[in-house]
Amino acid sequence: MPEVELPLIGDAARRARAAARVLRTLPTATKDAALLAMADALVAHADDVLTANAADVEAARAGGTPDAMLDRLRLDADRVAGVAEALRQLVALPDPVGDVVRGSTLENGLQLRQVRVPLGVVGIVYEARPNVTVDAAGLCLKSGNAALLRGSASAYRTNVVLVQVLAEAAAKAGLPADSVQLLPAERASVGELLNARGLVDVVIPRGGAELIQRVVRESTVPVIETGVGNCHVYVDASADADMAEAIVLNAKTHRVSVCNSAETLLVHRDSPLLGRLLTALADAGVTLHGDPAVIDAAARSGLSSVVPATDEDWATEYLSMDMAVRVVDDLPQALDHIAAWGSGHSEAIVADSASAIGAFVAGVDAAAVLVNASTRFTDGGEFGFGAEIGISTQKLHARGPLGLPELTSTTYVVTGNGHTR
Amino acid sequence: MPEVELPLIGDAARRARAAARVLRTLPTATKDAALLAMADALVAHADDVLTANAADVEAARAGGTPDAMLDRLRLDADRVAGVAEALRQLVALPDPVGDVVRGSTLENGLQLRQVRVPLGVVGIVYEARPNVTVDAAGLCLKSGNAALLRGSASAYRTNVVLVQVLAEAAAKAGLPADSVQLLPAERASVGELLNARGLVDVVIPRGGAELIQRVVRESTVPVIETGVGNCHVYVDASADADMAEAIVLNAKTHRVSVCNSAETLLVHRDSPLLGRLLTALADAGVTLHGDPAVIDAAARSGLSSVVPATDEDWATEYLSMDMAVRVVDDLPQALDHIAAWGSGHSEAIVADSASAIGAFVAGVDAAAVLVNASTRFTDGGEFGFGAEIGISTQKLHARGPLGLPELTSTTYVVTGNGHTR
Predict the structure, then answer these.
(1) Within an 8 Å CB–CB cutoff, is residue A377 touching chain B?
(2) Which residues belong to any copy of the Aldehyde dehydrogenase domain (chains A, B) (predicted)?
């Protein structure tokens, strides 16, 4: 069925497809039992996992990988226990498969039900962190999908052991043996996955902008984009001073390396808070990149180190202790700025004016709009959805945190008693 | 924002993007008033439309276009009145924009609402029939989207007049002037539309398998696939004889040129109905393509003209008075056949056995599964959804008839009072 040769992954994909046909029919209890067995097996085999991981870390260190990357790659007993616990928590989440999304009886007596079904085979392409291997496998299985995991080459030894442990435990608990498979780490296996149309139902890239762009460009399999967040906080003229300072600081500095951290601050020209916000950010260690009005205000506040901002600053997801700051003439100009430069992830307004809030919510086109709250709240856990496989920044299928229901499709089941047209 | 040059459509796409930012904020009443004005304008300018259409038809005839295609291209006063009436009927349908899909108050007091919003700019690529121009424009506007329409070159004169009439009426009623635009008919404009990432939010191809394959292969803009239907009817051993005959005949012969007509009949080896079904189909003028068991049964029923079926028959969407017929050993073999050859559109079972029905519904992965009903019911109008822009055969975003809610995305609106993490 796929139109291209798949020497590296074709066999795995065909076996995943067969597994998916069984998985879609399994009751929740069977899937939950498998998740618990997988968690137990991870804990039981933690030593094997850590041995393989130590080899990956050592090879990466020898290859000159920087410390921050090594930390993302490294597992320890606590981290293994943590991912095992995350599998157990999936058991408590409702199984979306079989949910009736809508239903009715038509005038002619036909009974119509739109029922949630698994997507089928889900391919996930991700970078260093091996905990994604476990999280993704758990989310896919709970939602009745077979998983094809393509982790990074740097974590390959770790991932081999993790997937072997998970797959064996799942099979013993009654799931098909090919429900979770690790794909080879060769570079070409990503390209094959992206072109396995007819065998793979969706590819979800988890990683930086470069990976996501490649996937979007090359893939003939449908893609759910995740994770690039060029997020803004707009401080309206009506904003409360303490609230604005707390939200701006939190959105920027609480955790700078994540997609829901803020990158640009937009301040209304009439707001008296600009100097205070700049000082608070500078005191917190943030490097400011400002337009001329910001540079002026900073100088008046005794701050001399503001970098002149260029278009590149408005476009950049820093993921660091840097923030671009711009003074806008009014709310429409803030909306124009966000429309021009935002990535459609999370946009926040701090304001006390109901009309300003209403215009901002109506005018911003993003996965999440936050009113008097930090951008950091855009998160499956914070939203109460449980685990997430990423945060979608696309408009089709799912936008925002991707939980279990977002890993399903639907089928219309139409029941008659001999109905013809 | 798009990474490629768009000499043919770039300007239109940028203006559509600006229009979409206004459209998303308009109340239902404004959009409905525009739809009524558009309907009135079409009727008022019917002569202009028909003059342009006569020129298109004449040019197509001179170019050797076959009569069946000419009929799809041709408008008359009744057809113009029909599409105008379809616009009026959109007014009665609920506006999905602003619907709260889910909402809750989190433990920390944050108020979470998932709200329907328009997709933004919708590109539609379609073939001869100019009524699609009006239907697509109406569905996009009612759901708050700007429409970029790329009809076929053969209908270009007609489409120019239709879009001019629609856009003028919409603008007079308060919609942005660029809410509906026709793209140039040059072949390259399709390629540009498919690569207008960042300006166009989704492309929906309406047409044959070749068009849809091209769109899927080339597009970096997200795509909703529509319309290829290799649909099956499975007649179980438990099927009622009259019901089976009525459903098989209806699914095959009611309208052969549409995607929800049946192409393959699968009959359980233990069913006594094979001869009767073959005779009824042959009597209705259907050319049968059968496996050896079917050819034997046909001979016993005095039918000599069954064509031996090959894999090509199982794969083909005939869209004609042809039907492939296979005898299967049991229901699992029917499921295997459908999984191997079906296009995921509509699959029907005729059976009285509840366990057979249950296994079929659980095992078939398609947009619609029909139990004791004809495949012809998979249709937005039949399902009570009103107008549809096509029938999606993909699993992401929307599966089955694409009505107004399927032309929307969502935004999470998160309201706090100074919430930080």
Answers:
(1) yes
(2) 11-270
